[in-house]
Amino acid sequence: MRIARLLHNNKPRWAMLLDSVETYRSFVSDEPWLDPTLDSKSYPINPSKLLAPSIPSKIVAVGLNYKDHIQEMKHDDHVEPVLFLKPPSSLLNPEAKILYPPSSKRVDYEAELAVVLKSRLKNASPEEAKDAIWGFTCCNDVTARDLQKVDGQWTRAKGFDTFCPLGPWLVTDYVEGNQRITSKVNGEVKQDSKISSRIWGTAELLSFVSKIMTLEPLDVLTTGTPSGIGPMNQGDIVEVEIEGIGVLRNIVG
């Protein structure tokens, strides 16, 4: 099932996508993970009306989860996941504009698989964590690379408004396997890997995070990026595509 958050009659609503994502039916409840009752009518999809498919209390991100990216960044191997937070204010809708901050001279794309939760997690096992996943989606962990190097930590570099494009929708029956993950800039492939190349899978990561902080419904976890990261420039069109999910597309402004 594909679930989107979109503007319906100019109001944010959750919806189930139908007919190869050309039409949708809206959910009656504002919490469709608890009450999946649908409106009886269907409506055509307008891609410009799609919103980021979450309203998180926090966005927990995982760094250095692909060995080729660790080598690319010249980092040492590590025995536990490396975590950082992106503020909810960094969330960006599909098709919306990534704003290039005046304080940075290099802003990079990072294609990532992300998940949105449907229930609270605390001190969870991987099996319990898997059951708490509502759906999988695409993320672009936008990073001001020059500021990251200057600061020696990641908060400013990854925390600007618009630096977490998410979407275009959630896939609730997605089964992680050997699916391809790519990023493109102006149609040119920049990253090309398989999600099976990650060091830690999603359930393991959620379990690990839940032993540090309580995760709430609609919180987001992003699971790392493969090698091939690089700069974006104003006017570029950046796409993150994950096989079996879809394409997250944004322009840099």
Main structural class: mainly beta
Number of strands: 20
Give average pLDDT, whole number: 96
Distance between the termini: 33 Å
Number of helices: 5
Task: Note the beta-strand portion.
Answer: 35-45%
> What's the story with the biggest beta sheet?
12 strands, mixed
Order of helices and strands: EEEEEEHEEEEEHEEHHEEEHEEEE
Parts with pLDDT < 50 across at least 5 consecutive residues: none
User: Shape, please?
Assistant: globular
Question: What layout of secondary structure does this protein have?
Answer:
Layout: E1 2-8, E2 11-18, E3 23-26, E4 43-44, E5 50-51, E6 59-63, H1 67-72, E7 82-86, E8 91-92, E9 97-98, E10 107-109, E11 111-117, H2 126-131, E12 133-140, E13 143-144, H3 145-151, H4 155-159, E14 164-171, E15 180-185, E16 188-194, H5 202-210, E17 220-222, E18 230-232, E19 237-242, E20 246-252
Parallel strand pairs: 6-17, 8-14, 9-20
Antiparallel strand pairs: 1-2, 1-5, 1-14, 2-3, 3-4, 6-7, 10-13, 10-18, 11-12, 11-17, 12-14, 15-16, 15-19, 19-20
What does this structure look like?
The chain is mainly β and 253 residues long. Helix content is 13%, strand content 38%. The protein is built from five helices and 20 strands. The strands form three sheets. Strands 1, 2, 3, 4, 5, 6, 7, 8, 11, 12, 14 and 17 form a twelve-stranded mixed β-sheet that branches. Strand 2 (11-18) and strand 3 (23-26) form a beta hairpin. The longest helix has 9 residues, at 202-210. The chain is globular and about 55 Å long. It starts with a strand and ends with a strand.
